[in-house]
Amino acid sequence: MELEEMKGLWNTMSQELNRQKILTDRMVVQMTQQKYRDKLRGISLPEMTGTVVCYAMALYALMNFNKLDTWYLAVCGMISISFCLVLPFLSMRSIFRMKKIDLSTNSYKESLEQYAREKDSFIKVQKASYYLGFIFSLAVLPVAGKLIRDKDLLLDSKLWIWYIPLALIFHFLFSKWVWKHYSSVTKGARNLLEELKE
What we know:
The protein is mainly alpha-helical and 198 residues long. The chain is built from 4 helices and no strands.
């Protein structure tokens, strides 16, 4: 073999290795993208289920709003309907924005920055849901009582004595459990993105 043949063979092998490296890098990015989306599914599926339930509740309340025949029931109805329409929408929008991050077109730094922005947005919505959830848990009972059983539950003081503490305790424990789960999922998604650096 002459020197020129060896150089040509060496260049061919080098080009083939570069192509394989590019292909391998692309496959790693695609696999990470899929794992990232699968990880976020742990948030999006429960949120989607909650959104469907909230929208169904809001639709039912809107269709029967005329049954809320006192000013305070109408106010509770508007609070409940607003909560059921706005917060699930904001939550789903922030989740879809996190899922939309494209690792193949963004640089590593851009992906992490975009993820941090969208995660912050999601956390703000979750915090708002947490605090507004206390108000919702108080507003929804009179509305449900009037629409389902045609009873004005605001006039039943015995009901409120046990309902308020139980609703607040349930809301606190449920929110704590959800927050722990969502924090775990978002941390896992960030770890997947950080693996790309290596």
